[in-house]
Specification:
Blueprint: H1 2-23, E1 28-30, H2 36-52, H3 57-70, H4 72-76, H5 85-113, E2 116-120, E3 123-130, E4 133-140, E5 146-151, H6 155-159, E6 163-168, E7 171-175, H7 184-193
Antiparallel strand pairs: 1-2, 2-3, 3-4, 5-6, 6-7
Helix pairs in contact: 2-5, 3-5
Amino acid sequence: MKHITQWISKWKEFRSKREATYFGTTLYDELTINPIPSLLLILGTVLFFVYSLPYAFYLGKFFYWFVGVLEITKVLKIPFLDELRYYHYLSAFVYFYIAASLLIDISRLLNKWNTRTVFVKNEIWQIQKFGLGKKLNKFDLNTEGLQLGFEHGGLIDYLGWNRLVWEKDGKTTFATPYFFPYKKNKIIINRILKR
């Protein structure tokens, strides 16, 4: 057990040194994001796939009916289009195509929601996973014409759907992921809002 705790402490020390060299300082604050929206999205996606898979064969029956209504088999004179089993193969392909495209869209949304937001001096660094690496976006808070919006209050505070949104000329320049406005995040928000 002693060796495991030593290994964990060495790993934390190595990680803190690496982040200090990455940010150029040890004086940085990271916004703690709310994982609940991401978990709800993942749970909803899994439930959608689990409960929709048994009904995928209805898609094959729909294709069979659709081809019959348009009378494609009579026009093209393709005999195998009269058999229902070929439409089940088509429905499986369409279902998995829809599932793959939905997973790609959800992964992009999760990547946007799980962006690391770090406040370094008068800059905001947003670090995203990008391919096999990371993507860093830097924003200067002293930019001319930049307006800060803070989405908060009421039920939003309890659900953790608070966000900081910076706009310039009516267009959103950048925004933080969802977070709870408590503990360390409250200190960061007060510093940004200068109150």
